[in-house]
Amino acid sequence: MSTETQIGDRLVAEIETAATRMKRVHEAAATVIFGQDLVIERTLITLLAGGHALLIGVPGLAKTLLVDTLGKVLGLDAKRIQFTPDLMPSDIIGSEVLEEPKGGGQRSFRFIKGPIFAQLLMADEINRASPKTQSALLQAMQEHHVTVAGQRHDVPAPFHVLATQNPLEQEGTYPLPEAQLDRFLLQIDVDYPDLAAERQMLHATTGTAEHALSSIISGPELIELQRLVRLMPVPDKVVEAILALVRAARPVADAPEETGRLIAWGPGPRASQALMLAVRAKALLDGRLAPSIEDVVTLAEPVLKHRMALTFAARAEGETIGGVIARLAGAVE
Question: Which residues contact 232 (CB under 8 A, 6 or more apart)?
Answer without folding.
Answer: 11, 15, 280, 283, 284, 289, 290, 291
